[in-house]
Amino acid sequence: MLAVIITIMVLELKVPEGHHLSDLVHAAGVGLLTYLLTFVYVGIYWNNHHHMFHLVRQASGAVLWANLALLFCLSLFPFSTAWVDESKFEQTPVVVYGLNLLAAAVAYVVLQTVIIQQPGPESPLRKAVGSDLKGKLSAGINLAGILSALTIDRGGRIGVWIALACFVAVAIMWIVPDHRIDRARSPAPDTRLTA
User: Fold this and answer.
1) Residue 173 to residue 98: CA distance in whole angstroms
2) How far apart are CA 98 and CA 155, in angstroms?
3) For an engineered disulfide with 8, which of 33, 78, 141, 181 has Cβ 3.0 to 4.6 Å away?
């Protein structure tokens, strides 16, 4: 599903009419930047989703529905990305893009929570993610970006650029590999002495 989302997004990019770099920048400059940002977000979700499900022993109906909610939010990425591109970063499309990012983050946290609740207090995922400060912080930064676009310099672009900087900051936070789940999957090293 996530590969399809990426494919749909790349099909939205406009092919330049000429054969020079300036033609590429003119035809798809903004589109390439927003595509890159959204591609990174989809890649982050893909990797984290894949790692998280390595700790799932059984998928209940609640897990399947929570997973479907996440996929729904992610499936809106091509739409919100294309709107930001076509508007050249107008306030409303940037806010909708931010809401789409925030909805996907909330859906991921809900999925993670449902998975954690299945086996109870001994959940390997609970042990791996702990209090999930990184997840909570990223949702807060996305929300700050949305509020910036809505409230700062409404007639100008300062709030929109702050919002975009927030969205990029969250992506950078998650590009750094998160080894919490890998550590939970790996067996503890054998520290016994051998003769």
Assistant:
1) 16
2) 19
3) 78
| Count of structural domains, the chain | 1
Residue 193 forms part of a structural domain: no
Would you say residue 126 lies in a domain?
Answer: yes
Residue 98 lies in a domain: yes
Instruction: Read off the pTM.
Output: 0.83
Whether 190 maps to a domain, the answer reads no
Residue 60: C-alpha distances to residues 44, 92, 94, 112, 139 (Å): 24, 38, 36, 13, 26
* Tokens describing residue 65: 């529905």
CA torsion angle for 109, 118, 179, 47 (degrees, to 10)?
-60
CB 107 within 8 A of CB 69: yes
The angle subtended at Cα 16 by Cα 169 and Cα 1, nearest 5°, is 50
Model confidence pLDDT, tens digit, residues 111-166: 988 888 877 777 777 777 777 788 889 999 999 999 999 999 877 789 999 999 99
Range of the domain at 51: 2-179
- 61 to each of 3, 15, 51, 66, 70, how far by Cα in Å? 24, 43, 20, 9, 14
Average pLDDT rounded to a whole number, residues 79-108: 94
3-state DSSP call for residue 89? coil
